[in-house]
Amino acid sequence: MEAFFTCGFVGVLIFAIIAVAALFTQRARQRTLQSTVEKLAQRLAILEARGVPAARSELQPIAPQPAPQPVGRAAATPPPLPVVSAPVTSAAPPLAKPAPSKPLLPAIDWEALMGVKLLAWLGGFVLFLGVVFLVQYSFQNNLITPVMRVVIGVVIGLGLIAAGWFTAVRNYRAPGQSLCATGVLVLYADIFAAHAFYDLLALPLTFALMSAITLVAFLLAVILDSQVVVVLGLLGGFLTPPLLMRGPDNALFLFGYVALLNFGVAAVVLRKTWDYLLLLAAIGSVLTELNWLPLGSAHAGFAANGFFIFLALQVQFLAFAILRQRQMPTEKWSTPAALATGFASLGFGFWLLSDFALATRPGFFFGFIFL
């Protein structure tokens, strides 16, 4: 019963956070509209003050020409020449060029950042953790059958995504984006648990479903122009294995899943130029590699798998860096991401020396270091 009360309290807390976030969103919108109207009024006043009437040109009348006289045999006097006066032009004074105004840096709206986005992000992440711990509690006490646990998780995840979509479309972007991100995290945890805990899904089907979830998450981020969906999706994607796995499991499945996450992040970066996501993905990959290694000395099983895992992730981020810098040479984030995985590979190489059998195989050690 205590767990149910805890879950209820977490649910009430989440709904309160969402309500407060919606209130702050409405206030931020009103303040933004008021600031926009004031800026437009100031701009109109400046334009009216700088207005100059059009220059008028004064036309001088042309002196009348004398009527032509009939040509006779003996003209008394030649006709007088017409007197033409020089036209007087009135030149308009040159307009004074206004001094170039320095571009003003946009002010940081701390109320919108701390009161709307931060609370929405924290609320979505706390809701994700609450669902994960509720799933773990149901695992330990066998309250629900495994199939129904997976089905309920899918329904909750899709419901959160649908609610977030409609909320974001109705101009409540921060709460809507947070709900979408939370739904993506719930789907990640649910599919991973269906494979790792219950053996309900085979490995190929699990990869296909996680690929679909990753595609949905990054499509939502691009369509809603929401970095929080990518960040929370990335965070939940890397937190799902250590939260639900007990000890080293199938290395092929684990790091294939990590590589899939990295490909999704790279696709979003190439589309939206949120380059810092590459470094976050590299950090998550390195932490997953370190969590996978045993705390003691090395042995042949981990050495053989790690040889390919560390090199494959390093090659992946090197390819991301080359592709991104060809697209934008001034980009600064892909190189640190590639360096992070490179130094992690070098660290794994020196970790191999902790085993005497591996340390006495120079071909294996130096071949890995060379690669």
Model description:
The protein has 371 residues and is an all-alpha fold. Helices cover 72% and strands 0% of the residues. It has helices spanning 2-49, 110-141, 146-169, 173-196, 203-224, 227-244, 251-272, 276-292, 300-327, 334-351, 356-359, 362-370. Helix 3 runs antiparallel to helix 4, helix 7 (251-272) packs antiparallel against helix 8 and helix 8 runs parallel beside helix 10. The longest helix has 48 residues, at 2-49. The protein starts with a helix and ends with a helix.
Q: Helices and strands: which structural class? A: mainly alpha
User: How many DSSP helices?
Assistant: 12
Shape: flat
Query: Which value, in Å, is the CA radius of gyration?
Result: 36 Å
| CA distance, first residue to last residue | 56 Å
Number of strands: 0
Q: Ranges with pLDDT <50 over ≥5 residues?
A: 1-5, 54-59
Percentage of residues in strands:
under 5%
